[in-house]
Design a protein that fits this description.
By secondary structure, the chain is mostly helical. The chain is 53% helix and 1% strand. The longest helix is centred in the N-terminal third of the chain and has 35 residues, at 69-103. It is globular and about 55 Å long. The structure holds zinc ion (2 copies). One zinc ion (ZN) is lined by residues 153, 208, 228, 232.
Length: 306
């Protein structure tokens, strides 16, 4: 295949290259502790790279996100800069409680060495982290209260860098903050967590890229935009109850539990015609209404609509 073809949207090269570069950049920033000086440096740089890809490789079913851009910005700033810190302060003591009660110490394992060699810990971190996120995310579609919180993320009508972090902070933290807190207390080597969780975080952020790129073989391993778009489909694919492709970052558990869905035509993945809330709710463009879950308040407490 000629280089020009490889570098096109059908060439299956741009997406893997983007994932590799973003992953390398994350490790570079963390290794040099740049994120301590510039909070959210990794995430904002990743979103900027995704935005550029979206401009270069236009997605043919693209839907304008202009009316909700202020909501996207506020939600991104809240979740990237504040949610992790605030919710860790709540989750850490809660998670700490279990090993202290059952093991009499703060870690499930006394030292990281007990969990085996580094390569094994890296594999275990990837498997456990992705399993926890898959499990939490699937529950967020099944348990009514969790779905009320999560359904705001499903209001989006297109995948975009800008709406990657559009989620209620509690919804966001159950999926993204709680699992790493659990991993930390299991007692894994922090470097194994950094490399393992970092790879899945790079992939899960990139899964919201709105570029019209084909990810090729990566669709079988990671949750790429082509895979995640089906999770956001306005109509749930036949044979599935709540949704498909619940994986966050990693596609393994969907494949194992029969929730993976990516129909193909001539070797190219098909994409859903319409993205949006499967219950038919319109995208909530007002961040305060999203934050205070006004859709679910009793009628007398709901702000009156003009
Ligand atoms: Zn979901
Ligand atoms: Zn999403």
């Amino acid at each position: 295949m000629k280089l020009k073809k490889l570098l096109s949207r059908d060439g299956f090269l741009i997406f893997p290259a983007a994932l590799a570069i973003i992953y390398w950049f994350r490790m570079f920033v963390y290794g040099n502790e740049i994120d301590l000086v510039v909070p959210g440096a990794v995430t904002f740089a990743t979103l900027a790279a995704m935005f550029i890809l979206e401009q270069v490789f236009r997605y043919k079913k693209k839907v304008s996100q202009k009316p909700v851009i202020a909501r996207d910005l506020v939600s991104t700033l809240v979740n990237v800069l504040a949610t992790g810190t605030v919710m860790s302060a709540i989750f850490v003591p809660a998670v700490l409680f279990f090993p202290e009660i059952f093991f009499g110490r703060t870690l499930f394992f006394g030292s990281a060495d007990q969990l085996g060699p580094f390569w094994l810990q890296l594999i275990l971190v990837i498997l456990l982290y992705s399993f926890l996120r898959y499990g939490v995310h699937r529950l967020q579609h099944i348990v009514p209260f969790l779905w009320e919180l999560h359904s705001y993320h499903h209001g989006v009508t297109d995948l975009q860098a800008s709406n990657t972090f559009v989620s209620h902070p509690i919804d966001y933290s159950l999926r993204n903050v709680l699992p790493p807190v659990v991993l930390g207390f299991v007692g894994f080597d922090p470097v194994a967590i950094l490399f393992g969780a970092g790879l899945l975080n790079a992939s899960s952020t990139l899964s919201h890229c709105g570029a019209g790129l084909h990810a090729g073989w990566l669709n079988h391993i990671f949750v790429t935009p082509e895979v995640h778009r089906w999770h956001h489909s306005a109509s749930v694919p036949k044979g599935h109850r709540y949704s498909v492709n619940y994986g966050v970052g990693f596609a393994l558990w969907d494949r194992l539990f029969g929730t993976y869905y990516l129909p193909m035509e001539n070797g190219i993945p098909l994409q859903p015609d319409k993205l949006g809330n499967p219950a038919g709710y319109a995208d909530e463009g007002n961040y305060l209404k999203l934050f205070f879950l006004t859709r679910y308040l009793p009628a007398f407490m709901r702000p009156t609509e003009k």
